[in-house]
Amino acid sequence: MTGGTRDGITCDVAVIGAGTAGLAAWDAATREGARAALIERGPGGTTCARVGCMPSKLLIAAARAAHDARGAGLFGIDVPQVGVDGRAVMRRLRAERDRFVASIRDGLGRVPEDLRVAGEARFTGPATLLVDGRVEVRANAVVIATGSSPSLPPSLAAIAGRVLTTDTLFESEDLPDSLAVLGAGPVGIEIAQAMTRLGVRVTVFDPAQSIGGATDPAVAASAEAIIGREVDLRLRTEVTQAAPDGEGIRLHWRSGGETGSAAFAQVLAAAGRPPNLADLDLGRAGLDLDEAGRPEIHPHSLQCGPAPLFIAGDANRLRPVLHEASRQGRIAGRNAARFPRVEAPAPWPAFALVFTDPEMAAVGRAFDPEAARDWLIGEVSFADQGRARVMGRNAGLARIYAEPEGRLIGAEMVGPGVEHLAHLLAAAIQEGWTARHLLERPYYHPTLEEGLTTALGAIAAREAAPGPPRVSSPRGIR
What pTM does this model have? Predict the structure, then answer.
């Protein structure tokens, strides 16, 4: 992308950021007939393609291959020895990652050169920007899609230069001998399990009560038990200090009244990605900011107060996943082009996946112990589910939530193939279906999807029944 030597650009919509949300916003604004400019400071490509979804899934795919080879004896297949070439694993990861990034960068070609500006944008007024102190961009409305960046816990400040983040991990030439992962959320737990399966000694630290963001206590316990068979999980544990230890790093931690320490070859900070808003001078845009320097954002229109400003994608922290970033970009781009005629479409059901093995999924409303007193809850265990046993992947638990009349409102799951089950439930929740309605759809035998019928059947049997809800006992389909 080139910035040229222009003194300024006048446009209808200025979009800051050329990731998933930014490109979607530019496309949407352009389709509305707006003259839209795109500002990008680099590096090009989306968070997903560069440092998120795609490289982590490439690491997971390599780990799954090694894990399956080691477990082939279950099926009578003899694999005498499984060797992991760490350098080859990382070479393939980067090569495929670069292909994904290149395809996204190629998409920038549809933006005319005279509407592309390279550099860092700062607000000088409600809808005026100065890029690298040299190019002024004057717009009627602005879409902020600047993404997010990894953060370091305060306990790692003393060794910040040695700490890996998801922005740097995938540039490693080889796999480390040992790795401490700070953060048991989706990204941290995915990488921790993958690295373990590739022969790395991994320990995960997190003050939280569960892994992968699980909120349902039963599902959280099941996930912790399953993943904990492979990975050294230190939940409810706070890392208090870090210091160099030869070529590695020594961590000190506290868990309850106990303390401990150990040295690791590398440390990965995977405790969150705050939005990239600090360098935009949002105060000059006339916005009211909170203590963290963030404006209030309408969750449906994505507008910042009454201002002609919209924030989409990871930059707004509402739902930092790619499918939401793409939709939010479209909403923000349309609203910016039509401003002040702003629409606030209903949100999609919340939908999150964690690509551990087995996978984790959450759809719709998160578990709430108070609200759940009035819910109908159906369960299915994958421990004896037919297709899961066939594959030797029979572990996990799914819990589906419904209102007393049977309308589906949410689910949390850990189990084989739940990424597919979660898609079915997300569609059913969005359509307002009841458990009985979804139960009456066809389910092929033998499939993992059959497992849903156990949980749905338990709910359907009690739809609109009087008295307090009763949780079904977990059972599988054989």
Answer: 0.90
Residues 6+ apart with CB under 8 A from 466: none
How far apart CA 377 and CA 459 sit, in angstroms, is 6
CA 305 to each of CA 122, 286, 294, 316, 340: distance values in angstroms, whole numbers, following the listed order: 19, 10, 12, 14, 12
For residues 361 and 354, give the distance between their C-alpha atoms in angstroms, rounded to a whole number.
6
- What's the rounded Cα separation, in Å, for the pair 278 and 276? 6
For residue 381, the 8-state DSSP code is: E
pLDDT higher than 80, residue 473? no
How is residue 140 written in tokens?
């009627």
Instruction: Give the whole-angstrom CA distance, residue 296 versus residue 178.
Output: 42
Radius of gyration of the chain (CA): 24
pLDDT of residue 46 exceeding 90, the answer is no
Distance CA 386, CA 380 (A): 12
- Which residues, at least 6 apart from 392, have a Cβ–Cβ distance to it below 8 Å? 71, 74, 75
Distance CA 7, CA 41 (A): 18
Cα-Cα-Cα-Cα dihedral of 172, 176, 179, 185, to 10°? 40
User: What is the per-residue burial (b if ≥16 Cβ within 10 Å, else e) of 401-414?
Assistant: bbbeebbbbbbbbb
- What is the share, in percent, of the chain residues with pLDDT greater than 70? 92
pLDDT confidence tier of residue 317, bands split at 50, 70 and 90: confident
352's tokens:
């999150």
What is the rounded distance in angstroms from the CA atom of residue 142 to the CA atom of residue 307?
Answer: 9
Cα 356-472-404 angle, rounded to 5 deg: 105
Q: For 366, which DSSP code?
A: P
β-strand partners of 354:
360
Domains of the chain in sequence order? 8-48+94-149+274-338 (3.50.50.60), 154-269 (3.50.50.60), 351-460 (3.30.390.30)
Q: How long, in residues, is the chain?
A: 478
pLDDT for residue 477 is more than 90:
no
- Residue 472: pLDDT band with limits 50, 70, 90: very low
On whether the CB atoms of residues 381 and 463 are closer than 8 A, the answer is no
pLDDT digits (tens, 9 = 90+) for 359-404: 999 999 999 999 999 999 999 999 999 999 999 999 999 999 999 9
Neighbours of 192 (CB within 10 A): 28
Token pair listed for 164:
């890996």
- Name the percent of the chain in helix, strand, coil, to the closest 5: 35, 25, 40
pLDDT of 478 over the 80 cut: no
